[in-house]
Fold this sequence. Notes:
There is one protein chain. The chain is α+β, with helices and mostly antiparallel strands. Helices cover about 40% and strands about 15% of the residues. It has helices at about 1-5, 60-70, 90-115, 140-170, 195-205, 215-225, 295-315, 345-360, 365-379, and strands at about 20-30, 30-35, 45, 50-55, 70-75, 120, 245-250, 260-265, 270, 280, 315-320, 340. The protein has a three-stranded antiparallel sheet, with helices on one face. It has a three-stranded antiparallel sheet with strand order 3-4-6, with no helix packed on it. Helix 4 packs antiparallel against helix 5 (about 195-205), helix 5 runs antiparallel to helix 6 and helix 8 (about 345-360) runs antiparallel to helix 9 (about 365-379). The structure holds zinc ion (3 copies). One zinc ion binds next to loops. One zinc ion binds near residues 321, 324 and 334.
Amino acid sequence: xxxxxxxxxxxxxxxxxxxxxxYLLWMDKSNxxxxxxxxxxNNFYKNGELCISxxxxxxxxxxxxxxxxxxxxxxxxxxxxLPTAGSCQNFFQIAIAxxxxxxxxxxxxxTARLPSGVDTPVKRRGISTQxxxxxxxxxxxxxxxxxxxxxQNVLTEQLxxxxxxxxxxxxxxxxxxxxxxxxLLAGSYLPLKSPALEFVKAVCQVLRLDVNIQSQVDKxxxxxxxxxxxGSFADEANFQDPCMSLVVPEVICEYCNSCRDLDLCxxxxxxxxxxxxxxxxxxxxxxxxxxxxxxxxxxxLISMLMRRSMTYTLQDLKCTKCKMIKDKNMSKYxxxxxxxxxxIPRDQFMQKLKIYENISKHYHLENLSEMIEFINKxx
Length: 379
Ligand SMILES: [Zn+2]
Ligand SMILES: [Zn+2]
Ligand SMILES: [Zn+2]
């Protein structure tokens, strides 16, 4: 909080915490789950540190039973890429929410046991990216032990059962009628084959966000992979985000005038395409919820793609040896005798083009797909 406020740019803004996460597993903007704390106690914001004080002794028992009723907020984009067949998505929700809830209840029980007056800092754990590990992990040894044991016992048993069930009921990527079991979404790009495999990868990836239980989860993953006959060192056993991303900046709702950056692949307000019905995307304002005009978005996309294609075509050439930008017009080789190559590799451009193509198909954007066809022809 204070680090935000200390920036010059925000000097004139007053920030007030309205709600926060009591317990959170965070992967990225479109993948997170946890327990939401909607009412913030008065003494919550202390010297720029977020604190939750334990409540008076009399309320202790209430606190625990209250914790048991708390809803787990689940917002996992990667879950949408699992098949609905064989209840893969439901099982994902059950396993993850169950784990978050159990750990949360344990934390509350723990704090209730501690003498009152002790401030426990908010437990905020997880990693935003593999590189950027949050070192500020605050947790008690008992909590670590609890979640480790939960992985080894309860969850191992639960996931073994579920994985076996999925593996038996949906073993291939097409069902009896020849339709693909994996949902085809705007962000799909990976050739997904085995529902059970994808399920195991997704669940373990999420559990792995808790740095304290990573080795337990890795062991669990190895065992689960063995169960479905996949080597744990195989390429296909590595988790890859199944969703691409394409952000259209500053989309304005025609009804409520709210403005936001829209990810056409990952947004939570997307209604995916079904049959001949194109996908649509809603305004995220809870009081509005009107569908955005796809024509306006298409215009945005076309000008974005135009700019991208222009940059690609007019890019500088770079020497492969000395990495200098080519400055002479006609020479075939650099002064150092190295050859020239594109500054922006062709693959990178084509990959981006593929995202646009997916989106144009998904939202039925005819003008955009015509343009893509044209670019494809000349590149
Ligand atoms: Zn704006
Ligand atoms: Zn709106
Ligand atoms: Zn050179």
